[in-house]
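Batch manifest, entry 17 of 40.
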Amino acid sequence: MNLSRVIRLGALIGISKPTQFRLQPAAFVLISRNITSNSNRLNPEIKEKFEGLLKIFPGNLDEISDLALSRPEILQLKTETIGSIASLLRYHGKSKLLENSDIIELLENYPEVLKVPASEFEKKLVDLLVSCSGNDLPWKSIIVANADIIVKNHQTIRIMLENLRQYFSRYELYPLIQNNPHVFREEWRDIEQKIKFLMHTMNVSLQSISKTPGSLLESLDFYHLRYTFLHRSGLYKHPSGNQIGTRPVEAEPALSRICTTDDRSFLNSCASNITLEELNIFKSLHYLEQQEQLSSEENEYDEDFEEYDENFNRGSNFGKKNRIDEKTKKELKKQKRKKM
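Output type: structure tokens
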């Protein structure tokens, strides 16, 4: 634990002079082995809460110290409340769910879980685990990254898993979720578009998608731009369509190299002979190209909307253009863009 953190934590509970301190056994544990308490300035209630956290998470002094600094509101809660939630997260029956460090990370990401009654949270967690019991899943990754979804609408996770099973086998699903734990925050329509683009346009196998970190978490535009850049530069190699064998040759560069979010790293890995300036120029041109394409499609839609309808009701309106209201027109345009 560094000195600055010690001083900040000491200030939080009323400790003024950081010097050497030896932790006392069980009932009397203070903030750090690097500080000394000034008993005249300690906040007894906060000190007691901190000691309670260390009893719940023994051996996690540094993590608890960070948690107290980043989420000081946790020190206002009853220790029993934190202990109940922690117990639920450690095991499901005899199966291990989360380690103490994982639970602390979850509390730092989503401390609001402590506001949910333990019985209610347990019901939602058990419902989720039971409803997905037919799949071998990285529950640690799912729970830590999506505690808020479990609390608010845990069925979202089950539904997304069912949708993903349309493409991925049960053996591919585990690494896919482990590498994309936030996939449950995406709309299925957007995820499916990305899967189809990776498969049919870039010719990336489902196995590669599942094994690549962040393979489904970028926008479709991100994959489209980098693929188009490599393809037009002559640097993207599609695999042969007539491969035989259990281990077909993958497209090159590998998806894991393309998914690097940093442009400089992307160029170093996939296009070392191209400069960052050239990539930025391509981005600008690609954007203008996309805008021109969208404008062209909108004009086509406008022309379709203005056509005469031969079956239009006779009478005073006969012969007039069959117009669609502006709201419907905008919605149809929006749907068209999303299908791209």
